Amino acid sequence: MQRPLIAVTPWYDYEKGVTYIKDGYCEGIIEAGGLAFLLPAVAGEDLLDEAISRFDGFLISGGPDIDPAYYNEVNLPYNGSISPVRDQMEICIVKKAVLQGKPVFGICRGIQVMNVALGGTLYQDIQAQVKAENLLKHSQEAPKWFPTHEIFIEKDSRVWNSFMRDTVRVNSYHHQAVKDIAPGFKATSRSPDGIIESLELENHVFAVGVQWHPELMWRKNADFLRLFSDFVDSCKKL
Ligand code: MN
């Protein structure tokens, strides 16, 4: 059986004019049995329509902050850098791929894009906007693969099935987080301070977003490759 073709959304550096992807995403897909391709940083809908129909699945990678206009908020001082081309292309991909029943896996920025694309909102900055006494450090200063906080996982979820445990320690590189959950999504894990760490669309072949970075962890801990495997396997079933 041929490997499913999986499109990965790229980082785009506006200053240098460079399209690129960080380590672990494409390699994780390949390790899990898929064939990964980096999409160009283009937002044309015709081109994206063609990509959506020809690829078997989509990985929405990590990256900068989303323009809050997409969830009807103004840019607050603590919103970070914005990538207009990524916002346009990724929101388009998520909306259409989900509608067409194609697998979508979102990592870090990816979970946030998935939530916003389907009508949810974000905290523009956890530190400034989340009032929790037990607030954790979500922008870790430790090696990238090193887990720094716990998550509590809901049973009967793909995240639970991938770890087969109620609690796991994950790495954390985000200053934003899901606030209002988009219709259809379910929060399937949270950190002890209540921050949403994963979302899953119910009754879908595979639409899962995680706030941590499994692509930086799977080489150290094979448990973190299992979501990649579930994603790639879902892409084979179409
Ligand atoms: Mn976190």
Q: What can you tell me about this protein's structure?
A:
There is one protein chain. The protein is of the alpha/beta class. It has a single domain, classed as Class I glutamine amidotransferase (GATase) domain (Rossmann fold). 26% of the residues lie in helices and 21% in strands. It has helices at 25-31, 45-54, 84-99, 109-117, 126-129, 158-163, 226-236; strands at 5-8, 11-13, 18-20, 35-38, 57-60, 104-107, 122-123, 149-153, 167-170, 177-178, 185-190, 196-201, 207-210. A hairpin with a 5-residue loop joins β11 (185-190) and β12 (196-201). α2 packs across α3 (84-99) and α3 packs across α4 (109-117). The model has no long low-confidence stretch (mean pLDDT 97). The structure holds manganese (II) ion (MN).
Mean pLDDT: 97
Q: For this structure, what is the CATH class?
A: Alpha Beta
Helical content band = 25-40%
Unreliable runs: none
Radius of gyration: 16 Å
**How many structural domains are formed by the residues?**
1
Q: Specify the number of helices.
A: 7
Structural class: alpha/beta
What is the straight-line distance between the termini?
Answer: 13 Å
Order of helices and strands: EEEHEHEHEHEHEHEEEEEH
**Beta-strand percentage range:** 15-25%
Task: Going across the biggest sheet, name each strand in turn.
Answer: 4-1-5-6-13-12-11-8-9
CATH fold call: Rossmann fold
